[in-house]
Each structure stands twice: as C-alpha cells, then as structure tokens.
Design a protein that fits this description.
Distance between the termini: 168 Å
Structural class: alpha+beta
Oligomer: single chain
Largest sheet: 4 strands, antiparallel
Shape: flat
Strand content: 15-25%
Strand order of the largest sheet: 2-3-1-6
Number of strands: 6
Amino acid sequence: MKKKVRAAARGAANSRNSRLAPRKSVPSQPSPPDSAKTSTKAPGKVSDKTIIRRLYTKLAVARAQIELLQLVADTDFLLDIPNRRGFERELDRAIAYIKRYHASGALVVLDVDRLKPINDAFGHAAGDQVLKGIAATIMRQVRASDVVGRLGGDEFAVLLWNLSETDARAKAAALEQSIDQLTFIFDGRRVATGASAGVAILDAQAEAARMLERADSAMYVRKAQRRHERRAADG
C-alpha cells in the first residue's frame, strides 16, 4: 500500500515538473535583406508617369501631323502659295480683324489672259511656267503682311492691308502692268500674257464670300474693258 502511494506521488511530481519546464524555442528564419525582398510591382509593369509621358509624346506627334496635313490642304502644290481654301481662311481672319479693330483692307482678284491658248499650243508644262512667273511677279509687288493665293486655274487673289480705295485700285493697275510686261520663250517663240484685276474694299460690313463675288465681278468688267481696248488698238 505504501509502495503504491509513493509511486503515485512520484508520477504526479514528474507530470508537474514537465509542465513547468521551459519549452525550447524554435529558431526563427532570418529576414532577407532589403535588396532580396520581392518587389510588389509586377514584372514588366510601366509606371503611370511613364504612360502619361508617352501619351503626351504621341499627342504632340499627332498634332504636328495634323498641322502638316492642314498646311498641305491649304497650299497650292505648284506655286507654294495658299490655294482657294487657304486664301478664304486668311480672308475670314482678315475680315474678323478689320471688324474688331476698325482696320482697312482690299481684295484684288486677277484673271490671267491667254493661258488656255498657251496650254493648247505648248503644253501644260509651259502653262505651269507662266503661272509660276506670274505668282513670282505678284509676290514682288506686295508686302510681307499681304497674302497672295491661287483661287484655281488661271485666277489669283491678293489680300492687301491698310490701303484706301484709291491706293488699292492703283495697286491693282500696277499688278496688271507688271504681268502685261512678262514674256516667255517656248519652242523658240516669244509669248506674252496679261491679267485683268478687280477690286473689292474690305470694311466692317464685309463678308468673305460676298467680297470674293464683288471682286470677281469687277474683274470680269475689267477683262471686257481690256479686250475692247486691245481691239481698238488693233483696229
């Protein structure tokens, strides 16, 4: 009986000692250095700032291409001056400026004489040479602020700034005279041409389409007058 009591006491003591004994700690894994830490950014992912910079670059390129296309669309490919579309755009801007600042200006429309017979007799390359010579002559007669354009075919237009009606008509006559004096040599033959000019004065009530019609009508009146003068001189 005593042996059983002592054995039970030893078992209880061993059980209590095992509960009170300190537990062995499990060594923790060392933390990897910062350079070895896995980045939270996905492989190959581009930052938002980089994307924005790329988009701005693409936008700038697209705008430059649009401006180039706009310039091409508004320019006469043969003469490198505004075509009808480009000239009408400049005329609209000029009229808006005149209305706002009470400025003055004039529109001159010039129709080239005898271009079709030149094309028929010597070919369109000869006609192109005539057009280039006339465009260069007009450009020499105007200021840098003025605008010279080709409305189509054998018709030119000139936008003149800050001229009175008297001065505008004098300038139109000077342009006619300068073009009348031009001569060209084709197949050994000397060829002359000319131009008839019509004038419309730009003011605060002006509208682009109406001014072009007015100058064009004045040009046809002038062309008929010049034709009559030539017949009278020949007769």
